[in-house]
Amino acid sequence: MTMLLPSMADDPTATLVLLRFSGDVHIKSRATRHQFVRRLIGNLHDALTAHGVAPRVHTSHNRILIELPADTPHGFLGRVFGIQSLSRVETRCASDANTIVRAGTELFRERVAGKRFAVRARRVGNRNRIPIASGAIERELGAALLPSAAKVDLGSPEVTVHVEVTEREAYLFANREPAEGGLPLGVEGRAVTLLSGGFDSAVAAWQLLRRGVVQDYVFCNLGGITHEVGVLRVAQVLAERWHYGHQPILYAIDFEAVTAELRAKTARRYWQVLLKRLMLRAAERIARQRRAAAIITGEAVGQVSSQTLQNLAVISRATDAMLLRPLVGSNKAEIINTAQRIGTFELSKVVGEYCDLVPHKPATAASFEAIDAEEARVDLAILHTAVDRARKFDLRNLERAQLEIPELEIEQIPPGAALIDLRSKAEYESWHHPDALWLEFQQAAATYPSFERGRRYVLVCQYGLMSAHLAERMRKDGFDAFHFRGGTRALRRSVEPA
Asked: So which residues are the catalytic ones?
């Protein structure tokens, strides 16, 4: 299959990036692969446009060539699902042996000087139309480079010379950069994801984005405006880094009345299981609106009390929708490592556990009968009303104001105010404002009721989420509290000379 979208410019200064299809795309039947590649091309166009680059994309067989203006970063292309690896082409030339050897010698002679090297060549496309063999290229180019090098080392070379030969051109480059692979986003339908802002739900969403499932997000708000802003920041990272080809929506549902109903009418030990069931019911209503085929959650067996196998079975019965739990067998360390890789870790680690429906002795093996009896006491009309009033956010077009909490924010330390740094002790000791007192977040959250009333408090943390959350709680209890806008980075800029 060869497709040209649109014509490639003959610009000698342009950067040419070669992309390889993932195995998931390459092994498909001809008709399915054609469909997947069309979707992949559309997603690449969206990625290029999002980064301010006019799309110039050429596909041939199982390769994609993208032309970028000189010195344009290209790493974002590896985040377009369906791409297995990519390489920045350093030289392109005619696909005859003499030209390839001449171009390769000129490009790599100095790079292999005094080093162990290897030449890796392959033919791409209809090999019957490419008369030169890969082995011949490796031998001839290797022989031309050997006088400058220490030796040929096919096992562990210090420099690898890559050559890919098509019917018309050959491409020479030094590196193969890994990409995310998977399936092009959009080829496997639509789901909604229950997003809490923590590590697990964001990683679960990413796992199924990589499998081609477009997603919208359902956020059941248990912690007020600061919880909402924290989740929006996590969701924005997913949307802007990983949703190329799709415009995801986040539905923010105020769960305050729902949790009040649970407290008033149900047994405390079942609150967590009941809450998860009500969240699934909320997600199911949004899924119907969005014509989504499944609900995605970040649950893993045994991670918390509501995620024992028995409790998961009971929770699952709350909906007839397909439930996808991509992390069900994952360890926490694996989840955190993935969160770091996909860019959500730093934000998720400061999105607090806002739910105060945590009983002292939660049920770890709730029976279907007990949960059915408890849930029968709940007025589900309250849940339906909350879902119908959900606020919608276009995650790839969020305004700055939607990620801020102006009524809680302050940009200068007022005279006489107590400045409290909520970070860890190590972070505090690495740098802190000279007037800042150190009180780690959990300790501050537990002890602030004993603070002196009538005094103004300014709270600061690394990103401004924990400090905003605590400032909001203190305000509700009658304290004059603010959080420092922009976190410790902004605070440091305010006191250090430019």
From this structure: 461
